[in-house]
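WARN retry 2 of 3 for item q-0093 after timeout on previous attempt; input resubmitted unchanged.
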Amino acid sequence: MLFDRRLVAGLASLWTASLASAATCTSNLVIDNFIKWTEGVNNLDWQNGDDGSMTSIAAAAGEVVFVPRALDSYFYESFPCQQAQTSGYGGLQFTVQGPSNGSFSLELQTVADCNVTTGHNSSYNIVGNLTGQLQTVTLPLLGFDNNPNYDAIVGLVWTVFSSYGAQWTIGNITLVCGAVPGGPPPTATVLPTRSTIAPTPTTVPTVAPTTACSNLLIDDWESQSRLTFLGYNAMGQASSDDGTMASIVVSGHRVMLTPSSTDSYFYSQFGCLDTQNKYGGISFKIRAARGTTFAVTMGWFQTCGSNNLKTATLTSTQLKWSFDGTERLYWFPFSVFTGLDASKLNMIYFSTFNAAVILGPMSFYCGTTATEYIAPPGGAISAPLALATSVVPVSNAKSFVIDSFTNQETNALGQWHGGEDGMAAVFGNNKLTILTNDSDANWNTQLADGCADMRAYSGAYLHIAYSGSNKFSVALQQHNEKCDDNIQPAPETWDSLEAARYASAKDIYMPINHFNINLTRSIGFNLRGFYTRDPTVITKIEIVDSVPAGWTMPKKLGSGNLIFACTRPNSFAFAIDDGDPKLAKRVMEIVKQADIPVTFFTVGLPLLDPTTGLGDIYKEMASHGHQIALHSYTHPKMEGLPDVAGIDWEINNDLGAVKQVFGDKGHTNYFRPPFGTEGARMRQQIAHHFKDPNAKIVMWSIDVEDWLWALTPTPENQLAAFKRDLASGGNLVVMHYLYNTTVEYLPEFIRLAKATGKKLMRVDQCMEDPNAPPLT
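OK item q-0093 returned
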């Protein structure tokens, strides 16, 4: 079994000295032996669980047994802030059983100090090479990265399990009093310095860098979706593991590669790149456990444009690299690879891993001196569009309680409340605890069975009494004009506000008139767009006529218009998302034969890739009168991104990609959020960057469910889904040309839509946009 730990003499002696001077603990602190599992708490009476991320989970006899559903499944333990170092705790111990040679990541959550009640910093450790039998893991606290504050530990998270669908067991989680077995010895040997670890070739070519040369980035691990959903690096070239890894996780400009076997590999391509007389080699930071080994292969073409790829391979041992659990800069000059032609480089290829590794930004360095590429910090975030003044309105409306969480089935109005399937929410002691970082998950509390007229409360406020995290959105939903759940769309729209902008440490006050909807058709409030694992505890949701004296109310920010249906009478629109470039021409043929205009939502990064041909395809589509709209740069769940800088990165790069391909004619204020994931932060930034408070955020009222049925034995269910939503009044379609079955059903979709007597048109036309081309 391998685990990361810092065996550095200076740090070890510092830790030993700190334990000696601490208020010595008298016994181990048992965090969880699962005797209170049925109560939803651990031994310290704080929450634990999986937030619904596991396929199954149960506890008995001192341990929890679970089956991860996916790579991002996790199990967490929260507890009162522990001053571990001051109290004399030296390590963390728990039992584990997983697949032989399995691995996982352990996250240590800390805060700045124990007086801080929200937010946390994350530090990580990799545990690997499991035996397949029940075993005890003892980790010295010194072994976590990012220099955590060991005097303010608030949680643990087990995640990135190397095998999902397999059974795992964790038990008897304990903070160990005093020095731990296997911990940093007082007289640890000082490891070799970085300069002695780096390769020392016998001959180093002289490379004269050009003036003002800077590292050429290969990948900065900016985006999980760019790498694992689209398969690109920062150069816009192919990068993938071809499904051979147990997991690939991108976070904080780092990528964690967890192999499923020694056959796992990962590569990043450069095209056919000439680095001669400018770049001398490749550098990147690596963090891996002691004893980790892998191989590095460089590939180059004999002639650019040919398929004649040459390769040379060296192991990490041959490169004189060794690892100890700390992150350090590693590099190699091209000269160490025999026969390598640096004028026609094609790829770097990693293979034969014996354990997980974490890579930092990877780049070509200038000249003969290896340097690190430093990922730039998130750019400055401009203030979103402000629409309303911060004047506090006055209301004469009578206050009333919507929800006090005394009943699991209904709220204080006797109306339904609850979360969607998979929503991790716990009732107890007249409060609701929400535990999720799934930005698609949401909790509803209704005002009425059909429509509630909230005009009398337009000058009042929504008040939410809470504790914990305020990293979520609050939406007020609007029903369709018939107030009928059986008619599409239902709801017709909603507006979302960012909870953190309206919050103190314990209260959220939102003016009802900040929700840009038709108040005569209000349905209820919806909590959504969660983007942290920190729990949110809510004790009351109510309407009040005033806010506390001195309360500062923020301005209403532009949040665009959320669209589920066409507004033009007797109209219908196909809004088609990106798919397989090989199927794009077939889609063009179908819509041409049907003689209809459609709207295509395109992802920016593949649009720029000349190998896909999508740039030329979409320019041809635009020339035939079809609308080209935006669908993000790399297709992540944008509201789930941890910060606004990440949302801005997606929007700005998408706008830049469309402008690069279409020029100024590519400007559009229509955007479809990937996966339909919506929230206030994303909407505010869309409105800001589009310079339009009414930017169109396009959803759908007809879902062909290609994502669900296209690759199953019953692809005809796509047609059934289309007919179902069409019969319910839907008139705005979502579909992808990812699958051949979906594309071949498109002519029938079009025939059925025409049979309704409605006129088929672009989305901007069906929304009666004055800037749309006239109907023909």
